[in-house]
Amino acid sequence: MITERGMFKVEDQLKRAIDAGARVVIGGRRPEGLNVDGYYFEPTVLVDVSDDVPMSCEETFGPLCPIYKFGTEEEVLRRANNVSVGLAGYFFSRDIGRIFRVAEGIEVGMVGVNTGILGSEVAPFGGVKESGIGREGSRYGIDEYLNIKYMNIAF
């Protein structure tokens, strides 16, 4: 973790999820016995996580991975899009039709399909909703610093 405040946010989100009925499958605490300074938290996987807890609708920026069950594409998209943030979304599928439907339907700025890696210097980085406006990186990152002027001259 980068800051103590970030560590506290992860711990608070985890506690609130557990209080609402989530179960920790692995992780869930600060590792013991580290001989280094910093903020460390074990990668944590949870199941039975409610849609109403903060980790389900806020950006965490920490090693919490809630796993949700769903029945249909429509249900999972409705649940995923029913939040005020939209930086990135990730999913796995072998069905090319599903890949395009879900990637187009999820309201995020970046989509990882069959991978957890999105970052690259040539890829635009940014979100939608309360996760930001515009993009960083790639050729699109310069757009925020430019003013485009249109000129039409007739003779």
Automatic annotation (TrEMBL):
One Gene Ontology biological process: gamma-aminobutyric acid catabolic process
Origin: domain of life: Eukaryota
Domain Aldehyde dehydrogenase stretches: 1-150
UniProt keyword terms in alphabetical order: Oxidoreductase
Keyword Manganese found: no
Pfam families: Aldedh
One MF annotation (Gene Ontology) recorded for this entry: aldehyde dehydrogenase [NAD(P)+] activity
InterPro entries: Ald_DH/histidinol_DH, Ald_DH_C, Ald_DH_N, Aldehyde_DH_dom, Aldehyde_DH_Superfamily
Keyword Oxidoreductase: yes
UniProt protein name: Aldehyde dehydrogenase domain-containing protein
Organism: Coemansia guatemalensis
UniProt lineage: Eukaryota, Fungi, Fungi incertae sedis, Zoopagomycota, Kickxellomycotina
